């Protein structure tokens, strides 16, 4: 069957489509298997070659064979046929194969619509400002490509024409996009999140062994950001509570796998600190708050050891409001099963540490005196704080206390808790983050993975669970000024934490402030934020039915306004340049009470207006003469048109 000339795809049209698909699919090149990238590139080049040399398209059986082989290869690469990564890899291959059977304008339009869909898939991996701007450019080019398909007969419109009109269409759609963003009913959770999608995310673990926390020092990735309602507390008060470790096998500490009972009773001192936390995706359930959180935010729980846990894995950026008491006293007693867990040590592990604990406890007056003695030992016995601790063997606490004496926060917290338990004092390890970097541009705190920290809690009969940070005894600078000030010179530290280049730090903080505003206003526009905004507008209890009705009304109003503006522009574009310039001249006189009658010719209109406004006669006569010559004469030229436009622009009645 022959293809009509208007439906044939020339090189120009195919080139625009190839450029659009390439721009949209390019970010996926680093996510799909390497052989998929090579296959798609080969298919693109193949289609370009066929189009340039006017060759026949490949047979269906060949395309089906390539598709079957690609599906089998993708299955072998991912080991499954479900999920985000598998689906996107298959989609990219199918798009490239569709190019090789594209013969008509209808086929090309299908690819354009699939190109728009492929734009959405990029946001499943990143919703940053650069990605949004990149995808906006891709949508712009794709829309320009679609515009080019509408002109079926030569001469084709110029690329500038296509791009300009595509940009105008996107600008016209912006008001409707804003209305949809604000009023469309929001849903909880990520657009698409599965447990395996969290692979590669770094951060704290539910286990702690020598070197596990110090391994995070090389990461400047943001763990979360915090905006305080009042003054930011001092750095040595910023303990962001995370997993609580109770169980010890002689080498590794572990957090409980089951949720502990509700939080205990405590007595607060002073007013709570209020703040908002925006936590980055981690694939875990942990939320972070200052010691001690008052209550859990929505869709989360507060455990008996005051750990915040989200009910669902944190697969996307999450914002929640918090309040914490920095000064408090635990009033509840210790349950028998808690006492057993807080004293348990594996038999025959770290025997030298156990002997040291018994000896020091016998010389101490009471538990507090013993705790002070242990901290004094760390402070005065040549212990060193380092991000590159030596490897430890089967009895890591013995080796650390008696041989290496060089470690990171997890070494000090672990050995301190073992010394406490060996002396009969209940103790546990708490991991989380300590400190943070104040962004003076956006006035919020940035807590990075490099700020990961471990400290201890001991049980005292007259005070309950009390925080003790043995790292502060060895390196008080770490707690008071942050990790960057405490790391010994020459040890590795992320560039952003080194403070060597003030201009680079300033630029980074400025960009982070912009990104944080984007996260809060766009990505953080949750159902709660939507309800708050609508309540400020006077709409309480905004159900999805109310939102749908409001959306229809406002969308209709926006479309009417935009349509009226477009029709007005179309009406103006149908006028020739001479008529359009003279219409502007008449419009300016009409605003001064001298409207031109429908039956009134330009000469009669000139006579009436000059009689009514004699001081405008020279300007009115000049414009009228130029218009009459251009409209009715046969000696007009381009200079006359430019002069008419210039005089109309300068005319001020």
Could you explain the architecture of this structure?
This protein is of the alpha+beta class. The chain is built from 23 helices and 19 strands. Strands 1, 3, 4, 8, 15, 18 and 19 form a 7-stranded antiparallel beta sheet that branches. The protein has a 5-stranded antiparallel beta sheet with strand order 11-6-2-17-16. It has a 3-stranded antiparallel beta sheet with strand order 7-10-9, with no helix packed on it. The longest helix has 30 residues, at 544-573. It is elongated. The protein starts with 10 loop residues before the first helix and ends with a helix. Mean pLDDT is 84; it is low at 1-5 and 191-201.
- Helix fraction, binned, reads 40-55%
| Record field, number of beta strands | 19
Mean model confidence by pLDDT: 84
Low-pLDDT regions: 1-5, 191-201
User: Can you tell me the overall shape?
Assistant: elongated
Structural class call reads alpha+beta
Quickly count the helices: 23
Main beta-sheet strand count, sense and barrel state:
7 strands, antiparallel
Report, as a whole number of angstroms, the end-to-end distance: 65 Å
Strand content: 5-15%
**Subunit arrangement of the protein:** single chain
Write down the Rg.
Answer: 35 Å
In short:
By secondary structure, this protein is an alpha+beta fold. The chain has 23 helices and 19 strands.
Which terms summarize this structure?
653 residues, alpha+beta, seven-stranded antiparallel β-sheet, five-stranded antiparallel β-sheet, 23 helices, elongated, disordered N terminus
